[in-house]
Amino acid sequence: MSTSSSPITFARPATPHPAAKTWSVADIEALLSLPFMELVFRAAEVHRQFFDPTKVQLSTLISIKTGGCPEDCGYCPQSVHHDTPVEEQPMMTVDEVIAAARTAKANGAGRFCMGAARRGPKDADLEQTLRMVSEVKALGMETCATFGLLKDGRAEQLKEAGLDFYNHNLDTAPDKYADIIQTREYEDRLDTLGKVRSAGLSVCCGGDCRPE
Ligand code: SF4
């Protein structure tokens, strides 16, 4: 980690979440040096400000398109670049996804997260993908998706279809990125996150998975 104390600021929508703040590296280092149980206590204090501490929000995740991914993430068995037992499967149909969402809802899930192993949504599958989102939303569930990199306009289409959250993790630090992934760059991830926020979607990104 850099020892610079320059502020780290993440792009946010015009109206920031009440808990949002700009953290300096020194702030973060001070936080991480706290005893673990003190961290747990502070986290619980913040959690109670915004959520009912007696409840847990349940999500169900489903892979709508498994395997055969052209990206080369070093940690992932779904990449075509790695020799693993995971075989490519066709994308699930809308009916299959909705049936799974109904089961998830019946089991208590309030949010349904759809993941696809690919570099980004394909034009050929777009209508099917948007229908999945809109029909899950129509069940009265929150919707989350992780479909990879988004080109211009895609985030708005997903938002219009009823998407609430977009998951897009940063994988690792910028200076380590090429050690893990060569098929895209750290900046590509930031670019998609910017599009997601600009479209008014909530970002699910590592430790940051909450409504904006
Ligand atoms: S983009 Fe996702 S599915 Fe594809 S290799 Fe990377 S982690 Fe795996």
Tell me what you see in this structure:
The chain is α/β, with parallel strands linked by helices. The chain folds into 2 domains: 21-55, no CATH class; 56-209, Aldolase class I (TIM Barrel, Alpha-Beta Barrel), CATH 3.20.20.70. It has 7 helices and 8 strands. The strands form 2 sheets. The chain has a 6-stranded mixed sheet with strand order 3-4-5-6-7-8. Strands 1-2 form a two-stranded antiparallel sheet. Strand 5, helix 5 (154-161) and strand 6 (165-167) form a beta-alpha-beta unit. Helix 3 (94-106) runs parallel beside helix 4. The longest helix is centred in the first third of the chain and has 15 residues, at 36-50. The two termini are 27 Å apart. Residues 1-14 have low confidence and may be disordered. Iron/sulfur cluster binds at residues 69, 71, 73, 76, 78-79, 117, 148.
Name of the CATH homologous superfamily of the largest domain? Aldolase class I
* CA-based gyration radius: 19 Å
Main sheet: which strands, in order across?
3-4-5-6-7-8
The top-level CATH class of the largest domain is Alpha Beta
* CATH fold category name of the largest domain: TIM Barrel
User: How many E-type strands?
Assistant: 8
Succession of helices and strands: EEHHEHEHEHEHHEE
